Structure formats: structure tokens, C-alpha cells
Amino acid sequence: MKKLVSLASTLAASLCVSTAALAQTEVSFYFPVAVGGPVTKIIDGYAAEFNKENPDLKVVPVYAGSYQETVVKALTAHKANKPPAAAILLSTDTFTLIDEDAIVPFDNFVKTDEERKWMKDFFPAFLLNGQIDNKTWGIPFQRSTVVMYWNKQAFKEAGLDPNTAPQNWEQLVSMGQKLTKRDASGNVERWGIQVPSSGFPYWLFQGFSTQNGAILANSEGTQVAFDDLKVIEALQFWVDLSQKYKIHPPGVVQWGTTPADFMQGKSAIIWTTTGNLTNIRKNAPFEFGVAMLPENVRRGSPTGGGNFFIFKKAPEAEQQGAFRFAKWLTQPERAAQWSIDTGYVAVSPAAYETQALKSYAADFPPAVVARDQLPFAVAELSTHDNQRVTKALNDGLQAALTGAKTPQQAMKDAQAEANRILRAYR
């Protein structure tokens, strides 16, 4: 009899476990791995922690490659009616995702005063690319700006103040000339300045164009200004760094190898994402500094990085689970730790008020440079059919940097191609 009772109890327990397992909602979460560092371990840890705190949900990270690969995979899954519940995609993909009817606005899920406050707590600059038609389509998470890193050891060697980065374009040229180092045969051993022009050339170029007072696209995503005189002047300056001043590598500079070039002493100054900050801090064999980008008629950098999106064709329970995960992921303490662990910018002012980030910034002041640059930041280039429009600009930038076209002709051609693509959206 006791055996029968025991067996019944075991079966009942198993049934409860099975029922609980069946009741658990799986939330697939596409995540792009585009910058070096132990990002996957961090995200896996977040998912495990969230799942433990929310036993009715199971967030499953899917590492889908670069940002470009991830959005292609997400949209392919959407068209096959098997989308992820959520994904971190470039904030600039917002128009494309809306046009594909692939995502739902976060406004659909916000019900309480606390949730409404959460929506307003992000840095305004990080909401520029995610808010369209008075709706919030993407929540900031993996966000960045372009910043300038400089090798203090190289500055000392060149007779420059190691604690002072170039503040404007004129100083960038004059310091770059002193920092560029050649051997007896005239071969360059160290470049003064290096700005990558593969991967995300349009993004790095927005540093130059913004500093020259130009805005590349309207907020509706229907019109670009690639052939504006200020834009052409900005591109001419980038070309001149190499062809006229001889302080920048010729041709196309690789995005992926630029941080390594800096850490190996091949370039004294680089422009790249704040997302490389922790990597460089851990691996640079010399003391380095981080500064806002130099100004010309103004300071400026585009914002960058990824937003959290929720997919429309995901079942309602998965969408609700994704919304809970988005709130959990962007809490001030977690946003602060994410910034410390990766170098990305914490997405809310409240994160910088946490003890963890205050202590980290006191020990490592470069951690707040990107935050301090946000008042000068502009929206990253984003339009309808964004990938094709940015490709037109990227092709033009590379044509000018390689000498295949003049800056004026390159931007004229890019404008013509963008006009052709965007005509249907006007």
C-alpha cells in the first residue's frame, strides 16, 4: 500500500513539473555579436538570472552574427511567420522594421505610471532613432557614440602634452603631423590619426559631417542631403588627412582591425565606438586617453548601437515576456554594470547615479566621456530602405577615400542613388 501511495506521489510530482514546464513561455532573443569581448557570456548570464527570477519565462539568446546578419535573419524569420520574440538590432533599422510591419511599439505594453516613467528615463539622444510618429518602437540598450582614443606614450614621444587631445580640426592636423612616425626610408611606422572606413563608414563620417554643421537626413527618413556643400567639405577634410597631410592611412581602413592597430602602436589616435572601451582598457600596453571628437563649426557625433525590438508576429505571451525582459535589462543597476563590462554607454541618467558606475567613473574617468558628448549628439543616419541608402553613401565615401572619385562627384552620385531609392516614400 505504501508503495502505491509513494508511486502516486511521484507521478503527481512529475505531473506538476511537466505542467509547470509546459506553462513556461520561451522568449527567443536575437543578439548581434559585432564587437570584441566576452559579450555572449554576459548576455547568457543575464538570461539565466532573469529566468531564475521569472520562472514562468525562459529567455533563449540566439547569437546571430553582425548587426547586418541579425536583421536579415530576423526579417527572414518574420516573413516565415517564425520571428523571434525580441531582438537587439541597429536603431537605424527602425524605419525598415516598421515598413516590413515586423515590430510593435512599446506603447502597446505600457500600462502603469511606473512603466510610463521607465519610458521617459532614457537619454533623449538615444530615443531619436527609436521614436517615430509619436510612438516608441525601440528601447535603447547597446548604445554608443564615436569617441577619440589617444596614445599618451606616443604624445610624450612627439613632444605633445599627453593629457590633452586635439580639440578641433586644426589641432587634429598639427598634432597628427607630429605624431606620424616614419623610418629612414620614409615608410610609416605610426600614423597620426586613423578613422575606419569599412563596416560602418557612414557612421564615422557623421562625426565629420556633424562637426561641419551638416545633418545627413530628415527626421521622416524620406530625404537625404549627401550633396550639401557642408557634407562635401567634411568628406574633403577626411580625404585630405590622407592625401594632403599624409597623417592618415590611404584607402579603406578596416573597422575590425582599428582597435588592434591602436593597441599595437600603429596609430596614435583613432576614432571608434565606445563599445571598444573595455577591450582597449584591458589590452592596451600603454596609458591612453578618451575624448569627445574634435570640433570644427561645432562638436558632434552620431549616436550608435542597438535598440531592443519586439516582433509583431510573436505570440502575445512571448511579446509580454519580451517586454518584461526589456524592462529588466534596462534597470539602472544593470545598465550601469553593462556599461562597466562592455564600454557601451549606460542608457539612462539614473544609471550614472548608481554607486557602481560612480565608483567606476571615479577610478576610470574615460567611462563618462561618451555620456558627456550626448548633448552634442545627433541621430544616426536612418531612412526608409535604410540599408540601400547607407550603401549608396558608403560606396561614395570609399570612392572618395580611394581616389576613384572626387568628394564632390562621390556625394553627387550618392545623392542621386538615394533620391531614386527614396522616391517611393515621399
Automatic annotation (TrEMBL):
Family the entry assigns: Belongs to the bacterial solute-binding protein 1 family.
Protein name as catalogued: sn-glycerol-3-phosphate-binding periplasmic protein UgpB
One Pfam family matching this protein: SBP_bac_8
UniProt signal peptide: 1-23
Organism: Orrella daihaiensis
Keyword Nucleotide-binding: no
DNA repair as UniProt keyword: no
Highest taxon listed in the record's lineage: Bacteria
Subunit structure: The complex is composed of two ATP-binding proteins (UgpC), two transmembrane proteins (UgpA and UgpE) and a solute-binding protein (UgpB).
InterPro entries recorded: Bact_solute-bd_prot1, SBP
Localization in the cell: Periplasm
Keywords noted in UniProt: Signal, Transport
Recorded coiled-coil stretches: none
